[in-house]
Amino acid sequence: MVTRPEHPRGIRGIEILFDQCRRRPGQNREERRRGRELPLIVLLGRRGSGKTATLNWLGWIASTRPHAAYDFASDAPRRPHEVAARLAFGLSYRHRNQPPIRFPRLTLGLIVVRMGLSFELGGSDPRDELRQALRQIRKDGAGENGPVLPEVVALLQDLNLLQFPGATLLLSLVRSGLPRLPVGLLWRTGLAWYGARQEYVGLDALVALNRLHQSETHGDRAAVDRTLCEAFVADLRAHYARYDRDRACVLLLDNIDRNRGRQFLDLLVDIREHATTPDGREEFDPLLVVATASDSGRVPGTFDPASRGLRLTAPEDASYAAWERARPRPAVDPAWRWYPVVLRDLTADEVGKLAESVPRLAGAPPLVHRLTYGHPWSVRRLHDVVRRAIARGDADTALRTVLEADWPSPEADAPPEPFARAALRYLLTDATDDRLAALTTCAAARELDAAVDAGLLDDARHPLLLEEVGARLWLGPPVPEDAGTRGGHGSGYLPERCHPVPLPGRPVLHPWLRLLLLRELATRPAGDAPDWTATHTTLRDWYHTQGQPLDEYYHRLALGELETVVDRLHVSLGTLPDVDAWLYELYAVTAAPSRDPVNPGPPASRRALRLAEELAPRSFRDHRALTVLVTSLWLATDPRNRLPVTAPELNHTIGAMFRELGTHAQPRAAGLLHEAHRYAERA
Q1: Is the dihedral of CA 636, 594, 506, 422 positive or negative?
Q2: What whole-number distance in Å separates Cα of residue 665 and Cα of residue 302?
Q3: pTM attached to this predicted model
Q4: Which DSSP symbol is given to 430?
Q5: In this predicted model, what pLDDT tens digit does every residue of 405-420 receive, in sequence order?
Q6: Which of 10, 385, 394, 672 is the most exposed place for a label (fewest CB within 10 A)?
Q7: Does residue 211 contact residue 119 with C-beta atoms inside 8 Å?
């Protein structure tokens, strides 16, 4: 019995798409035999988004029908025909009340190219050698309990299956599957297929295939791969033409952006592109491929001008009908056959449901969601960290310092490291040290494009960082800056058009990754790489020359220039067109990061008062309400300063400062009082 894996959250749309594509529609057997075009579904997601877990779940759904899985990252690079052999091994498993899929064409081809025969000029007739070798295979394979072919033993060794108990059972299964086949089927079907597809007849076709295999030229090796992969597809089509099955068989391919994964799939797509019946009609194979990748730059598909990259489909928007409607007619290339579906982050509700199975997490899931923005791997790990931290002491203090909690070091004898550093290392596993340093510097900018334009990266290769980060899906739309992101009520109610010089709205780093990178930047000592002060100073000055005041004052606040920021906001409150424009500016500027965002000692509201008086003594004296409001909103950017989550402490301070400001801001009073209401406690 197949063990049921855990059901990933947020993939309902993918499950529906999977079911739509697996079904073989038709009113009669002939229609189902003919089949239909199927997409090559690619589940894209940044590292830790749950791609493998989703693939495992789909495998469980498909477990009662022919299916096979292969992980390109867990094996040495293999040629396409070797991958096809391993997939055929999985597909040939016998399911209850269903005839097994047999692969006579592929099996015969594998025998010919992997028997070790080498035909030399001047030697014996290669056809005689081939006949003798095949006779021996027929003799060895005769009988229900005959010996297993060495080819099968080698295959099982490659898959690391012989080391486990029960290998004898696996070998017996192979006798009735791949490559053990009825001799007549192997000869009649396999030999006829090879002879009919080229100028050679009978054994001459197999001799030609063997000679191509012995060649070292790229073209000859590619011809062998194509022939055997075509045999793989032809065997599947023949089986489904003979048996009226209600579901297509499934291939689940993990990490296709690694170790020649694309080479196999490109060949499969090309075979589909040129598949026709003898009478010239399109021929469809009953094979649904679901693959995963973390690098969208390695996946074909339709280009999206808006995102300057691959056109991605959200799980909730994915369907077979939508894919079919988007098919270009006529198609200029086969890229339309690929259907990239991007895995999304978890919602606050889904994060809360995950926490139901973890004791002692009352009140923590909202903080976990606000920190990670629902990144699946980080949510699970942070739940564990929070549970252990709460068990050791005061809940609020533990939650404020959760990113500094101990996490086991990857080095056996090394001391534990902060969870934030361990999480960053996991998320950017493939990044080199210099790329990580460059990305840490770039994280200071609100938008990654601006970091490059401002000259933060002096190495000519580093601008490629933009392309790499985008391909790894770490860029996304900006988060709306308003009361909803500071613990208040409401989000997205301040449109960009309300401000004379709005933010550009270009893609930004994922907020969770950026938070971790900013932590690294804050602790970076002055030296070869720009530290916190040098980086934000460069950005402040560059934005000043570009005439973009919101970003200029954003970086001024990051540098602690609170006095200057308050002066700007005091003037703009009376000069901007209306209160919405001023609120847009207020939230845009106070979204700035802080070098020391959290202090576990005093409550956040008390710290806001002290920080306001310390950084802006003149403004604190002359414009106290505005100074405290700006400081409180600045601290509220970090969700760890909005505890307890049931009644965030800073909300009272922010609401009080909005009300006090409103009493002295005629004719803007009504708008400010309405904004104060967004921070009021509600049952």
Answers
A1: negative
A2: 52
A3: 0.88
A4: T
A5: 989 887 778 889 999 9
A6: 394
A7: yes
